[in-house]
Each structure stands twice: as structure tokens, then as C-alpha cells.
Amino acid sequence: MRKWCRTFSSVLISFCLIGSSVFPCRAAGENIGTAIDKTAAAVTQTSDEMMSYREYADAYRSAPSEAAIAVDISRYIASDEIQAEMQELDGRTAVVTGEEGKITWTFTVLQSGLYDLQVDYYMPAGKGSAAERMFYLDGALPYREAQNIRFNRCWINQEENKIYTSSGNEYRRTQVELHQWQQSLLYSQLGYTDESLRFYLEKGEHTLTMESLAEPMAIGALEFLVVPEIQNYAQVKQEYEAAGYQNVSQGLTIQGEDAVRKSHSTLYAVEDRTSPANEPFDESLILLNSIGGNSWKYRHQWIEWEFTVPESGLYTLTLRTKQDYVSGAGSSRRIYIDGKVPFAEAESFTVPYELNWQSITLGEENNPWKFYLAAGETHVIRLEAVIGPLADTLTTVSEVVQELNTLYRQLKMIIGSFSDPLRDYNLETNIPNLFEILESCNAKLKTAAGNLEQIMGGKGEQTAYIDRLTVQLTSLIKYPDTIPERLSDLSDNLNNLSSWLVSASEVPLIIDCMTLSPEGAEVPPADAKWYQKLWSTAKAFFISFLQDYYSIDGIGGEIEVTEKISLWLGVGRDQSMIIKNLSDSSFTAKTGIGLNIRLVDMSILLQAVSSQNGPDVALFMDHAQPINYGLRGALYNLASFEDCDEVLTRFNESALTPFRSGKSLYALPEQQVFPMLFYRTDVFEEFGISVPNTWDDLQKLIPVLQEQNMEIGLPSPTITVTGSQATNLNAVYAALLLQSGASVYDESGYCVLNELTAVNSFIKWTEYYTKYNFPKTYSDISRFRTGEMPLLVASYTFYNTLALAAPEIQSLWAMAPMPGTVQEDGSIDRSVACTLTGCVIFQNADAPAACWEFLKWWTDAGTQVNYGREIEALQGTSARWPTANVSAMQELGWSSSVSRQISEQWEHVVGIPEVAGGYYVGRSVDNAIKSVINSDEDARETILDQVDKINKEIRNKRQELGLE
């Protein structure tokens, strides 16, 4: 009876709403050629529904191959974009492929079966990132994971010996690329499997197509291999016994920080002071005594060590290591000896979670693994990060998350953002397989939770997210009427589980040393004695009162310094050390100008400058600050230097405008950030819609997406794209303003946001929230991940954040330039504003010419590229440097296609001047839109009132500064 009443009420309300916005929405959708079934029952196949590798491998695992197949790499067909050519590289003939395009080879299979694909490759000079390729078999992707295969570079220490600062602290050696031939099978970057990706080949002729996604790469050989059967340790042990191999009598220890080669530039020696047993160790100095840690956590990252043994025979391998990064979970590694996995068990050994250091002898309890090593040879140990025993469980959870995300999107399209308790949504009719999906996913998750509990040794933090979702799914199956009102809870649980998948697939590990020794021999202790720890802690405590934590000392060496300048930084010690090292090696060494760097809280800068105790130079100044200091006579006019115009050619004019006042220039730009459009390609394909090219296109897209209860995300109307203080104009408002031909200020420095075009732009901006009900605040990662917000505007640096935080949708989204406005001549104006940081010279600098030389060096393309690569090597791709130097951006780690998109938008970036009292503009616009959205005030009258207040504040500031 209750259900019938709800149905009757829903029908009655629907008739009452005839003539409302429902029908115009459908009409708007038809105007751009889109027809969408509101029930969301019929969904076209998209890339996230492609067969997974696990499904593919399970189907063909019982089809073993018998003979290898060599592909003739010289016989290829290449697209124009790839610029392929045959070259001689390091003694081998290879086909060199560019950053974009496709290349295809034809080959013949004599015996049907499942094959590994082995690639011999060489990485020429590039941007320092791994090469990325997509592989097609007979013109089609065989499975989802083939969409993104990475080929690692090889990195070594530039300096042969350790380097120390003038105070005795050890400094991290520079990582440089070693260009050499490498050999690799294909490994997934999209899934969670540790095994190589294989291809089932029927007897006959086939084509293999490789599409370049990032970085150039040379191919020396392609060979389809018979899938090997690796012997287990018991079989290898029998072979040792049959050969008469004996235990050795002595061993050796290899220090972790002495690694010779690495797959990533982020894998460098690090300092660890958690145990006095680490070698070397000092309470007062920075000594790099370990390697790995939180930077060695991604699958297929590897580190290699070289060594020679004192005698031929059988050795055990003991690692002094620690995994206290991921609570309750172990970290796994695959071990290679001289390029081969010695036995099946070495495919994955796991270091358990432990707060303290551990000494782990590889193998089983009372049965350590032994490795035969011959004397007189140089051996290589490689440890490669793998997921290990969690791989199958994570694969299952990932598949469930994808399936439930699709279901959630269908439910959201039917129910909307706010459920109606009086309405029957007929979910079972609109989604016929609803309960089948829920029950299947629930069963898979319970199995995964059980497996995870067994691996972890019980329930805990690692099982909590799966358990939470299974409880909810069980409840939804039992009480289906509650699905509409609990949809947001389902979204939260899915996002939490997706985030857990990312963290669970990370396997950080730090290594102090590894010991090769006879069985039963004494190995390095796991940790220091309690009294050693107590004494070390006490010693470090007292030393802390004597150390200067604010000064950055330089690298020791015979560098003649003729003059010094002081530099203040408000960033971290790591960034400061990079700047100091770069300046010592490439600035001070050439100019004789030394740097006295201090780390400070930049909030004290104003007081220091006012009291004549400030620095000569400051970096990373927010773009509003140089004008504020410059108008008060505190900064040096950089335009007074003779070669200033030549230096300014490094930047777009948009990066200079906020630092100009009349003919004066008070800063050089360092970082420049601007907004771009991000969209879910799978959702757009699903509904047959195109990326909006103009704001009118976006306007037509609104009813199409809202009809499916999806949203468009614009930056919060109360903060900027980059999340900085509200003195900056909102990115969308600034874009609408600039594209309409309006300005923020007139030539006198007064605000003109009260002019007609500016007012209309403000009204249009507010209507996105008042008329179309765009969300004012939201989690961009969460909603973009689920697909409920398939289109959003964000800073272009969001690209790296998204790639790291949501790898499960890596192939399901793309970036595009901002929507524009059609001009009278038919062209499209895509103007957007930007945010900047700048470097300045203070007026009281003793040697302004020396300071200018430093600013020229710092903003030079070579320095910006080196700093960008160093900071990315230190902190990962999420810290990719958004340089303002145009040519430097092209040399950083962006793929050619992404770099092209950034450059395309960069051409339309417009700098908004900074004026006296300009801080009041962003704040007042912020107040204005809050009043319109929250208090339903008239947009036109509100912005006009705020402009009056802005100009009053500007007038007061101009009078205060003597400008009028």
C-alpha cells in the first residue's frame, strides 16, 4: 500500500511539472545530436569495459607455445607522426620511434599458443621520463592493460665518490641517465598483476602495432618467447647437490646506498637515523646510509648492486631492511641474480610490516635459500618492486570497483543528487541486473576480504574498507528501498576503496645493507641495543641546541667567491639544497658570486625589509607581492638593467604583466599556472557527446548531463584554481571577463568591473550556480573518479595529481583547452588568467648587479629544467615544476601530446595587472558571489556595490603611496 502511494504521488508530481525545465533539457540535448535513455539501462561499451588481462590469460593459459618467433624489425609500416628510421645505436641496428604515431610489423606464427613478448630497447636522450607505448595485435587491443606499457630508463650516480658539504653533511649525488641497451618483457601499468603480459597467437600471419604515447625509444629486437616454466627451489637445490656445490667459508656485505643502477631517478641514497646500527651513522651530521624508502614503492621499480665474491660456492642472502610505511602490510620484491630469477620462489619474497629494522635471511624458516656464485666474476643483484601475494586480491577488488562505479553512475542517472522519499524509482525495472550485480560484487568482495585477512594474519586497517563496503552491499540487497537515500554513502565507500587500492598497491621498502654469507654465519644485527639507542637519542638531543637549521651550506670544494648575496627561501630544505647545489656547480663556479641561503617563514619578510634587515634576493614570491613591495620603494627596478629585454624573451607577456607598474618591472616569473578542461572520455563516448569548444557548447551540454543527473565542476566560486587566497579572481569568471573584451582595471589603476561587458560576465558566472545549480564545493578527485562529474575545470597541474591519485581511470580521461568565446571574425578567444610566483631583488641590496646575474641564471631554461627534474626526482611526478620559462616547459616530463595541449592554452593566457589596493578586488568579488548565491541578491546591483567599495580602497591606497 505504501509503495502504491509513493508511485501515485510521483505520477501526480510529474504531471504538475509539465512545462517545467524537464522538456527544455531534452530539447537542448537534441540540439547537439545526443539521445540518451534516462533509464541508463542501455550503456555502450567503453574502454573501461574492455576485457581485463586476467580474463584474457585465464582463457588461454592452457595453450602453451613451443617455439620462439623473431620479428623482423627492419620490415615495418610507420605512420607519418612517428618519424621512424633505422639507425646504428651503441653497436646495434635499431628502428628509432618518436613520441607519437604508430609502427606496425608483420610476422608469421607456426604454432598456436600463448607467448611472452620480449623487447630489446634503447632510450635516447629525452625528457627523463619512462617511454610509454600501447600494443595492438592484429589491429585491436587484446586487453585493457595493453593500453599503457612503460619502458624504464636506467639511472646512475653522476659522481663516482660521495660528496659532502662544507660542514661535513653528505649531499645526495646527482642522478644521470645511462644510455644502454635493455631487455624487458611487457608489464602492466593499469592492472595489479605481477606477471608479464602475454599474447595468444593463432597459427598464421599477424600484425603487431606499437603506438607511441611518450618519449622516443629505439627497438633493437622483438621476439615472442615460449612462456618459461621456472623451477622451484627444491629442484634448483637438487641441481646444486648434483653439481657438487659446497657452502662457502666467508662472505661479504653490500651497503644499500652503494647501488650502481636504478630504474628511476627518485631511487637515490637517503638518510635514516632511526637506529644507531645503520652504517654509517652520526647524530650531528647528515649521512646517506640507506636506499629506497617511500620513493621505492611503485611496481616494477628496480635497484641493482654489483659485487664480486671471495670464493665460488653457495651463499645465503640476508637483508637488513625495514617496512614501517604501510601499516599492517608487507612489501614484496622480485630478485634477479645476473639478470635471471633463480627459482620460482624468488618471483616474490615479502618483508613483513615492523616498526623496527629487521635482518631477514631469504627463504623458509630453518631452510634458507642458497645461491651459487662464482669467484672472479662481477655479479649483479636486482631487486624489483612487486605487489606479491596481494596481486590477485587487488585485481578482484579493482574489477569490483569498476563494476560498482558503472552501477553507481547508472543509479545516479536515475535517482539524481537528492532522492525523493515519496517516489518509487523502479530500480529493478530500469536496471534489470541490479541485484545480480550487487550480489556478485558482494560475493567477490567477501572472498577478497577473506584472502586479505589470511595474508595479513587477521582483520585490521587493510581489511576495513572492504568490510565496510560488504556490510553496505549486504544491507542494500536486504533493503533495496533504501538504495536511493544511501547512494551518497555508496559513493563514499567506493572512493575510499579506490584510494585504498592505490595505497595497497604501493610497496615501500628501505634497505641498509645486504649480506652474502655461509649458511649459519653471523649477520648484521637487526637493531642496536637499547642502551645504544638511549645514548644516541640523548646525544642527538643536546647537539640539536648547537646546530643551525636555517642556513644551507654549500658543497665543499675550491671555488673562489668574489662576492656574496643573501637569499631567503620559504620552501623546504630539500628544495633549498637543490638550489644551493645547482648554484654552486653552475652559477658560483662561473661567476664567483656565492649564495648565503636561509630558510625562513616568509611572513617575517615585511618586518625584516622595513627594518633594513631583509635579504638581497627572495624567490617564490606570490604574484601580488612584488607590486606591493615595489610601489613602496622596497624593490629594485629590474627594467633598469641593460639586458633586461633580452631576458624577458624567455617568458610570455602574460607572466610579466602582474609584475609591471608603468615602465618599472619588479620581478621575474618562476612558476605560471593556468586552468584547463578535464573530461572523462568513457562517459563522453558512452553518450556520444563532444568536448565543449566554446561556452555556448558547454551551455548546451548542461541539460544533457543534468538530465542524467551528472554535474560539471567549475572552481569553487570562493577560491582560486590553485587554492590560494581569495585575492585572485576566480578562473572561470576571469576567463568570461577576458574573452568578452573586458578588463579588470583602467589605465589609472581603478577597477572597471562595473562596465557593461564585465557586469554581464559576472551575471553569466553566477547563473551557473543560481540557474543551473552547479556544485559550489566538491571533491574533484572523488567525483571525477566515479564519473558523476565527467567534466571539470582545474589547474593544468591537476593532471599529475589525477594520474597518481586515480590510476584505475588512467586511460579514461583527457585534458583539453578551456572553452572559448566566438569573436566577430569567427575566431575563438580562449583567454584565461594565471597565477604566478616571482623572484625579486630588494632595493637595499649591496650588489644589485650580482643579484641580477643570479636572477638571470635562476630563470634560464637550463636551470629551470635542471631544477624541475631534480625536484621531480626527489618528490615524484606530482611535484612536476610548472615553470614560467616557455622553452623549459617543453623539456620537462610532459608527453608530447600533453605538452602540445598546455602550449596551445598557454598562448591564450592573459596577465591581469596588479595595482595599489588590488588585493581588495578578489575579496570583494568573493563577497559579491557569496551574496548572490547564498542570499539571492541581485547580481548586477551586488557587483556594482562591490566595485564602489573596491575603488574607494584603491583611492585610499593610491593616496597613501603618493600616486595621486
Quick structural overview:
The protein is of the alpha+beta class.
Q: How many separate helices?
A: 26
Q: What characterizes the major β-sheet? A: 7 strands, antiparallel
Radius of gyration: 31 Å
Tell the overall outline: globular
Can you name the CATH architecture of the largest domain?
3-Layer(aba) Sandwich
Q: What is the averaged pLDDT score?
A: 88
What is the CA–CA distance across the termini?
Answer: 78 Å
CATH classification class of the largest domain: Alpha Beta
Q: Please provide the count of β strands.
A: 44
**Unreliable residue stretches:** 1-47, 720-726
CATH T-level fold name of the largest domain: D-Maltodextrin-Binding Protein, domain 2
Provide the helix percentage: 25-40%
SS content category: alpha+beta
Q: Could you say how many structural domains there are in total?
A: 5
- Write the CATH homologous superfamily of the largest domain: Periplasmic binding protein-like II
Keyword list:
Jelly Rolls; alpha+beta; disordered N terminus; 7-stranded antiparallel β-sheet; 26 helices; 44 strands; 22% strand; 964 residues; 5 domains
Structure write-up:
The protein has 964 residues and is an alpha+beta fold. 34% of the residues lie in helices and 22% in strands. Strands 1, 3, 4, 6, 13, 14 and 16 form a seven-stranded antiparallel β-sheet that branches. Strands 17, 19, 20, 22, 25, 28 and 30 form a seven-stranded antiparallel β-sheet that branches. The longest helix has 25 residues, at 391-415.
